[in-house]
């Protein structure tokens, strides 16, 4: 029994029992260039332009700087590496890329020579509806025995500018969720911000029963 235990231990130590040897992760290769003209770029091992990298991790960048007028500057989450401007040659960078957006530029010509790529899954920002526009309406009472307001309006927020031009009349608006009026002795202009609901609204002067009208809100 003791001989068998020793033999198994020896075989395991020698790797004969099939234990998988540890394999180091190999950084993924990428190739960047700047110059000799006004061009800059980044490609993968197949020569395709790099626009998106699916997985964050370790990547090897081989940067060829082909002009003393340009440089290659990579900026992004956890990374800020560049080649010198007044220099030509090749540099190799081993970088850990995180999820996010990376940009590369030539610093002296950043508006002309630039590019970018994303790392990790693309996230779509939630869609938010823009705030509804506030409809603007005008109302008037006076001078004399006159009153006016919109015959139709839309449901929702409304800003109503009321011009009260008579000290004997007032403007009174009532309907679903609304009961607003100016004072009988008031003359001037007021603004009301109201929420109109579907239905029929009545506008009138409280001192003249015949001075009235209706507004349909849909």
Explain this structure:
6% of the residues lie in helices and 48% in strands. It is mostly beta strands. It folds into 2 domains: 26-119, Cupredoxins -  blue copper proteins (Immunoglobulin-like, Sandwich), CATH 2.60.40.420; 135-217, Sandwich (Immunoglobulin-like). It is rod-shaped. Residues 1-24 have low confidence and may be disordered.
State the helicity in percent bands. under 10%
Percent strand equals over 45%
Distance between the termini: 93 Å
What name goes with the CATH superfamily of the largest domain? Cupredoxins -  blue copper proteins
CATH class of the largest domain, please?
Mainly Beta
H/I helix tally: 1
Number of domains: 2
Order of helices and strands: HEEEEEEEEEEEEEEEEEE
The unreliable regions are 1-24
CATH topology of the largest domain: Immunoglobulin-like
**How many runs of DSSP E, i.e. beta strands?**
18
How would you characterize the largest beta sheet?
Answer: 5 strands, mixed
The CATH level-2 architecture of the largest domain is identified as: Sandwich
**Shape verdict:** rod-shaped
Question: From the alpha-carbon coordinates, what is the Rg to the nearest angstrom?
Answer: 38 Å
SS content category: mainly beta
Strand order of the largest sheet: 3-9-8-5-6
Average pLDDT, rounded to a whole number, is: 88
